[in-house]
């Protein structure tokens, strides 16, 4: 059986992302396929999956992982064309003459 691990996170923008599914081997494959079919970004990172797989389903991502998870969430949003409101027309706010 494969040693592949998969962890699915959910982020509601109100609290830290939390684990909603976790598994290895065949279950990991099923989690990944369900995400792909649902149009959810799948990021493959063996080391991150290893660390996240130690969390229980329903548990929030610990503060030590906030930066890496936040970067992945931000990247996923940008791929979908979503940007924070304060980014709107940011190019107009930059003084290129300075």
From TrEMBL:
It comes from Ferrimonas sediminicola. The keyword Kinase does not apply. GO terms for cellular component: plasma membrane. Pfam families: Bac_export_2 (PF01312). GO terms for biological process: protein secretion. Required for formation of the rod structure in the basal body of the flagellar apparatus. Together with FliI and FliH, may constitute the export apparatus of flagellin. It comes from the Bacteria. SUPFAM superfamilies: EscU C-terminal domain-like. Coiled coil: none annotated. Belongs to the type III secretion exporter family. Keywords: Bacterial flagellum protein export, Cell projection, Cilium, Flagellum, Protein transport, Transport. PANTHER family: FLAGELLAR BIOSYNTHETIC PROTEIN FLHB (PTHR30531:SF12). This is Flagellar biosynthetic protein FlhB.
